[in-house]
Write a structure and sequence with these properties.
By secondary structure, the protein is an alpha/beta fold. The chain has three domains: 91 residues, Rossmann fold, CATH 3.40.50.720; 206 residues, UDP-N-acetylmuramoyl-L-alanine:D-glutamate ligase (3-Layer(aba) Sandwich), CATH 3.40.1190.10; 131 residues, Alpha-Beta Complex (Protein-Tyrosine Phosphatase, Chain A), CATH 3.90.190. The chain has 18 helices and 20 strands. It has a nine-stranded mixed sheet, with helices on both faces. A six-stranded mixed sheet has the order 15-16-20-17-18-19, with helices on both faces. It has a five-stranded parallel sheet with strand order 3-2-1-4-5. Strand 2, helix 2 and strand 3 form a beta-alpha-beta unit. The longest helix has 16 residues.
Length: 461
């Protein structure tokens, strides 16, 4: 494993947050020879058994129930896990000390020798990241797909043999503390309000997204959505890199026309037909254009890219067709944790919609849903902590009911839905009020859809 110039042997390092990224950071820092301490909001008793074993094996000190200045000020370096708000009082106190605070991308930056493709945006990141990775793997490259997608970047760095290409899904949390991180290809898909509770407003959220381009230099590439006004403006401000736009304007380097993408990287124009693929819808075409452009810039051949797109079957919890019963389609879009994602889902599902939404509020403006709710949603079922706020934003334009559980919500939706319509779980909120994760929420939806009594033939039978 390559030595990291930010971490010296026996250096005192504190890790704030023992989630997926925090746990991987502990393993990585310990492997570098650092003296690791962990500060975690949960108590020791609340940790999972594997987390306790990790602390026992790799850490010199653990504090639970919050974050104390005492532990952190003794560190020479503090690792901030994604999702830990920068507004924590203890972090404000550290700002006046010599303690250096880094995130996942900043800590990895000095040792990332592989070609790096980073993807950010409010929605679509995981799909585009996965598709780029699949195209490059099909092209015969050794690829590590990591970041916010679920596999921490540190797991890649811990491997003896580094891959040809690292494809990183980068959240706004990660980009906020990205330090010197510099992707060879940086991809910006879209920007709409999200995580406003964490970023202290929309302007700060936009600044975090823009940091994906901050350290790029001549020879690097920026792949940017021209359809999105904010993205297009950010692209026009970039001076040192070549910008590859994608969208519905004929001047775009990846031009979308109905079900086709025309890609122009140099003199030749490549044509890709998305008819019959999972990407043959408004949002899917844009995601595919971004992935195509990025994978081709990384050297994948057009025939390989086209074949991978045709075989791609989509991802769990992202507009996933769970079942069709009595002519009603049931879609699991649990990953839709902001209003932009819900709007996107409503644009794509067929027929009128019975929408299930709600969960833990993230500071989003639910009024942004009004236009799509008025045209697509016949009935809205709200759940979770944000139920009242969502209902208040749209109850003058749609019928609204409240459910106390996912089971009740699915039963209610099933009784309301008519043949030709869709039942859509697209929450616009985080999941942590009722569930462990968006995946847990999505599984609960699928499990309850499976319990619905129907005379129709289930999908896939």
């Amino acid at each position: 494993m390559k030595k990291n110039p930010l971490v010296q042997t026996n250096m005192a390092v504190a890790v704030i947050g023992l989630g997926i990224s925090g746990s991987a950071a502990v393993r990585y820092l310990h492997a570098l020879g650092a003296e690791v301490s962990v500060s975690e909001r949960r108590s020791w008793e609340q940790l999972r058994p594997e987390e306790r074993r990790l602390v026992d094996e790799c850490c010199r000190r653990f504090e639970g129930g919050g974050h104390s200045p005492d532990l952190l000020q003794q560190a020479e370096l503090v690792f901030l896990s994604p999702g830990i708000p920068p507004t924590l009082p203890v972090l404000q106190k550290l700002a006046d000390t010599s303690v250096r605070i880094v995130g996942e991308l900043a800590l990895a930056a000095p040792v990332l020798a592989s070609r790096t493709i980073a993807i950010t945006g409010t929605n679509g990141k995981t799909t585009v990241t996965t598709l780029i990775g699949e195209i490059l793997k099909a092209a015969g490259e050794e690829v590590c797909v990591c970041g916010n997608i679920g596999r921490p970047l540190f797991e890649c760095l811990l491997e003896e043999q580094q891959p040809d290409t690292v494809v990183v899904e980068a959240s706004s949390f990660q980009l906020d503390n990205a330090g010197a991180f510099r992707p060879d290809i940086a991809v910006l898909l879209n920007i709409s309000p999200d995580h406003l509770d964490h970023h202290r407003g929309y302007a700060e959220y936009i600044k975090a997204k823009a940091k994906i381009f901050k350290n790029q230099r001549p020879g690097d590439s920026a792949v940017i959505c021209d359809d999105d006004i904010l993205c297009a403006e950010l692209g026009r401000d970039l001076k040192n890199v070549e910008v590859f736009s994608f969208g519905h304007d004929k001047r775009c380097r990846a031009y979308i026309c109905e079900s086709e993408i025309y890609l122009r990287l140099q003199a030749n124009v490549e044509r890709y037909d998305l008819t019959g693929t999972v990407f043959d819808n408004f949002i899917g075409r844009r995601n595919c254009a971004a992935a195509l452009c990025s994978a081709r810039l990384a050297g994948a051949q057009p025939s390989v890219a086209a074949a991978t797109i045709r075989s791609f079957s989509g991802l769990e919890h992202r507009l996933e067709l769970v079942d069709t019963r009595d002519g009603v389609r049931y879609y699991n879009d649990s990953k839709a944790t902001n209003t932009g994602a819900v709007i996107s889902a409503l644009q794509q599902v067929p027929g009128k919609v019975i929408l299930i939404a709600g969960g833990r509020d993230k500071g989003d403006d639910y009024g942004l849903l009004r236009e799509m709710v008025s045209t697509k949603v016949r009935h809205l079922i709200v759940i979770g902590e944000a139920a009242t706020a969502i209902a208040a934003a749209v109850d003058d334009i749609a019928a609204v009911a409240t459910a106390a559980s996912m089971e009740e919500a699915v039963k209610m939706a099933s009784s309301l839905a008519r043949a030709g319509e869709s039942v859509l779980l697209s929450p616009a909120c985080a999941s942590f009020d009722m569930f462990d994760s968006y995946a847990h929420r999505g599984r609960a939806f699928r499990d309850n859809v499976a319990k619905i009594q129907s005379s129709a033939t289930p999908v896939g039978s």
